[in-house]
Amino acid sequence: MAKEFSRSQRVGSQIQRELADLIQFQLNDPRVGLVTVSGVDVTRDMAHAKIYITMFNTDNGVEDVLAALNHAAGFLRRELGKRMKLRITPQLVFVYDASVENGANINALINAALASDRGEK
Description:
alpha+beta; GMP Synthetase, Chain A, domain 3; three-stranded mixed beta sheet; 4 helices; 50% helix; globular
């Protein structure tokens, strides 16, 4: 019987859970507000991980939050290595995931189109 998920996918989901906890409770950078880890892509050799984040109601810009997270990547990697039993703890690179924002924009456009079809404002 074949496994449903590859090892890199299972490690990625575990990294996602651990990083969400670390960012929320251990990272004390005021530039990082409400950040959600929306996904993790881990290479097959487990050497690199691309962390996708979304932000909600943040006063700082996307670039400031990404700079803060990429600056704290060493600390987060060390803490991740303590929590997970891996031979190699992957290098972390944080990337902004605009899919939630794009989905909200599309939803607003659909609602506006439906309202104009009904003759409402």
